[in-house]
């Protein structure tokens, strides 16, 4: 990821680089992109961006990390407001059966941990996308969500970006940083691919079942 980001920085420039990273972080939760491509909107993106910032003088790590934190915060705010505005029906329209199972799992996670669920979910690919909406559907107190969202955005968005930066900038922490980030990145990739393939397979199965039902009725 960091190699691709470096190439993009060279060709697009600093401002576009900032905007792309922030937009992907925002869209990961606000637009549900993180369901199928968490490795492009989540941990690997942040860690890779931090690595790139450490390897060039063109990027300011403070600007990058603060922007990521704000984008993460706003993405969850949008998800929360959508859930509060449109209710459970909004979640029911998300993806295939695999995604619906992830939503049920997220609801259980939220009911169990409440305020902390919003913070911890940042580090869990499936929960990061759905917890804000579930919190909105569950009518979580707005100010409680606001505070947990701020803490989560700082811990995840700013934290992982800085982890990537210091992994490259300080040799003494490089090994530990790569191990921690590698775990979250691998989990993101595995979950994203499994969800994408499972949803595609379920949609094809549903389409065949629907076609078969129509043929039976027609016969």
From TrEMBL:
InterPro entries: DedA-like, VTT_dom. GO terms for cellular component: plasma membrane. Its main location: membrane. It is a multi-pass membrane protein. Coiled coil: none annotated. Residues 46-165 form the VTT domain. It is found in: Cell membrane. The chain crosses the membrane at residues 15-39, 46-74, 113-138, 150-170, 176-197. The keyword Membrane applies. Keywords: Cell membrane, Membrane, Transmembrane, Transmembrane helix. Belongs to the DedA family. This is DedA family protein. It comes from Cryobacterium zongtaii.
């Amino acid at each position: 990821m960091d190699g691709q980001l470096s190439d993009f920085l060279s060709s697009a420039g600093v401002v576009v680089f900032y905007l792309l990273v922030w937009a992907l972080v925002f869209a990961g939760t606000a637009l549900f992109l993180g369901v199928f491509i968490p490795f492009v909107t989540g941990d690997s993106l942040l860690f890779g961006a931090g690595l790139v910032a450490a390897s060039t003088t063109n990027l300011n790590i403070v600007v990058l990390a603060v922007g990521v934190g704000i984008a993460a915060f706003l993405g969850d705010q949008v998800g929360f407001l959508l859930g509060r505005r449109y209710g459970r029906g909004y979640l029911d329209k998300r993806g295939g059966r695999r995604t619906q199972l992830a939503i049920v799992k997220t609801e259980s996670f939220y009911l169990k941990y409440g305020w902390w669920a919003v913070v911890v979910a940042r580090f869990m690919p499936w929960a990061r996308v759905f917890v804000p909406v579930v919190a909105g559907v569950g009518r979580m107190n707005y100010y409680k969500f606001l505070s947990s969202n701020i803490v989560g955005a700082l811990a995840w968005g700013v934290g992982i970006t800085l982890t990537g930066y210091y992994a490259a900038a300080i040799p003494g922490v490089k090994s530990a940083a790569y191990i921690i980030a590698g775990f979250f990145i691998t989990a993101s990739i595995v979950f994203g691919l499994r969800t994408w393939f499972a949803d595609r397979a379920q949609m094809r199965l549903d389409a065949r079942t629907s076609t078969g039902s129509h043929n039976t009725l027609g016969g």
